[in-house]
Amino acid sequence: MSQSLTKSATADAPPSGTSPGGRSLQGHPWLTLLTVAVGVMMVALDGTIVAIANPVIQADLHAAPSDIQWVTSGYLLALAVFLITAGKIGDRFGHKTTFLVGAVGFAATSAAIGFAGDIRTVIVCRVLQGLFGALLQPAALGLLRGAFPADRLNMAIGIWGGVIGASTAAGPIVGGLLVEHVNWESVFFINIPVGLLALALGLWILKDARTENAARSFDVPGIALLSAAMFALVFGIIKAPEWGWGDPATLLFLGGAVVLMTAFAFWQRVAREPLIPLALFRSLPLSAGTLLMVLMAFSFFGAIFFVTFYLQNVHGMTPVQAGVHLLPMTGMMIVGSPLAGIAIGKLGPRIPIVAGMLITTVAMFGMSTLDAGSGNGVMALWFVLMGLGISPVMVGATEVIVGNAPMELSGVAGGLQQSAMQVGGSLGTAVLGALMAARVTDALPGKWADAGLPPVEPAQAEGLNQAAQLGIAPPAPAGTPQQVVDAMAGAVHDSFVSGMSLAFAVASVVAFAAAVLGLLTRRGTTEAGPAVHI
After folding, report:
1. Residue 478: phi, psi to the nearest 5?
2. What are phi and psi of 377, to 5 degrees?
3. pLDDT on residue 534
4. How far is residue 292's CA from residue 421's CA, in Å, rounded to a whole number?
5. Biggest alpha carbon distance in the chain?
């Protein structure tokens, strides 16, 4: 398969930016990295900053709980469904154009949300925001793949991962400050200057590099089948905790996803220009890297979902305080990602990935030992190990997937990497959430009785159980002795921690399975990009 690169129309145009010495800055690898990092920062920041604003949005717009859930779920669903197709759009029309459209669209829909006056408009704009976010992420990886030579791609992906970690870490803190001191709309308005900066840098710096054998058409039936399959899968996972895993509606969506995915695979075998050539998965490292990303996201995002409830509801922290307490983990991700890129460049991805997942396994098991009275020191220890372990896996698995794909499929590979992460995270949150809910339901009556508290009325039992699954102690009637109030809170918190411990224990097993799978990974075998003098 030819890997020679041809200049795009954009590349043929006169350079739009030059250095003082007259040298063109367009296509400069490190400036390309800076530009795509600014764009992807919006998406990563948005993933955590909005969660802080949701309670205020619900109160201000008088939204039902089911509506406010879709402020998050609608965004994630659109992101997961469209990622691979967005990668194909980048391969077909150029990653620069796709990136710029994504940046402008993300900023514009953010502004629309800020000006929305009702919850339905917010949800619709959040779905559109997810679609534009899906354009940004695979395009960013495709641009990095085209700009960096193979020996520097790992470092670039490492820094890119560090930016994502920094943005994710900043989300709860920035969101808490904006909501507390400005308003919830400012959480979305902050994307406007970032998007404009990404646009300006993109027009000045980015340069497309396309291959001679890039796709000339779209596999419309393949896009429709894959989109329907991803929608059925992610929607079924999102709704399963509410409906029940054995509910006919859940089984219909999950079973439909299997049928649609099977039909998609069959169509890819006969399509003239398939969306995802199945030959791509003949690469054992690429297939292993994709599954590794699913398992990593299952264990990490699925388990870490409960940590914010643990910090805020069990330990009584504010959102900003909780964000600060998570800095040991996210800080290690910020520092560890570039270092992981260096290590992978010298050792290859296998050793760092396996070591990282083993460290993550230890951290997950350590988190399962926390209780309601655990101090900041022991929490910080496990958070540090978590960030240290996840960093080489994020960077390594991304390099394995993108680096083992042909250049003309770099966008699809980037979409595949992001889709694997989204599906794994959604599945982990749903499955571990179901296990945790079951454990809390079993433990709460015993903890309540052990605290010497009177039996709960049947009409109030379900509400108490749902609150306990979030670690929220029920409000006590006026005049209740403080000793009884403390006993109620203790029973709820102990039940919550029991469920969280089970979730982390299962996550540690999944993390160990990912470590074993990491043995099948290896360095990318296809050319990354043209040699560049820096």
Report:
1. -60, 140
2. -65, -50
3. 33
4. 9
5. 81
Q: What number of helices (H) and strands (E) belong to the chain?
A: 18, 2
Q: Scanning the structure block, which residue is given the tokens 């003239």? A: 272
Q: Give φ, ψ of 18 to 5 degrees.
A: -135, 155
DSSP SS3 for 211: strand
Encode 18-38: b = buried (16+ Cβ within 10 Å), e = exposed: eeeeeeeebbbbbbbbebbbb
Q: What is the DSSP string of 438-453?
A: HHHHHHHHHHHHHTTP
3-state secondary structure 353-385: HHHHHHHHHHHHHHHCCCCCCCCHHHHHHHHHH
Neighbours of 129 (CB within 10 A): 29
DSSP state for residue 405 in the 8-state scheme: S
pLDDT band of residue 49 (cuts 50, 70, 90) is confident
Q: Compute the average pLDDT of residues 55-64.
A: 77
Find the distance separating the first CA and the last CA of the chain, reported in whole Å.
28
Query: Under DSSP, is residue 18 helix (H, G, I), strand (E, B) or coil?
Result: strand
Task: Please tell me the distance from the alpha carbon of residue 310 to that of residue 440, in angstroms, as a whole number.
Answer: 14
Interacting residues of 11 by C-beta distance below 8 A, sequence separation 6+: 27, 207, 208, 209
Q: What is the pTM of this model?
A: 0.75
Both structure tokens of 304:
């870490």
Dist. CA 503–CA 303, nearest whole Å: 6
**Cα separation, 186 vs 473, whole angstroms:** 31
Q: Which two tokens stand for residue 186?
A: 């400012």
Residue 524 has which token pair?
Answer: 């990318």
pLDDT single digits (tens) 365-383: 999 999 888 888 898 899 9
- The three-class DSSP label of residue 281 is helix
Query: Residue 470: helix, strand or coil by DSSP?
Result: coil
The 10s digit of each residue's pLDDT in 73-85 is: 788 778 878 888 8
Enumerate residues 6+ apart whose C-beta is below 8 A from 358.
Answer: 389, 512, 515
Position 506 scores a pLDDT of 93
Backbone angles phi, psi at 6, to 5 degrees: -115, 150
CA distance 134 to 109: 13
Q: Which of 301, 329, 311, 345 is nearest to 511 (CA)?
A: 301
Q: CA separation (Å) from 408 to 201, 416, 484, 522?
A: 24, 14, 66, 20
**Distance in angstroms (rounded) separating the CA atoms of residues 126 and 29:** 32
> Tokens 């050792």 correspond to what residue?
347
Q: Could you tell me the sign of the dihedral formed by the alpha carbons of 342, 345, 347, 349, in that order?
A: positive
Tokens of 486: 């403390």
109 neighbors 132 (Cβ within 8 angstroms): yes
399 vs 341: CA distance, rounded Å? 9
Q: Can you tell me the distance from the alpha carbon of 285 to that of 302, in angstroms, rounded to the nearest whole number?
A: 25
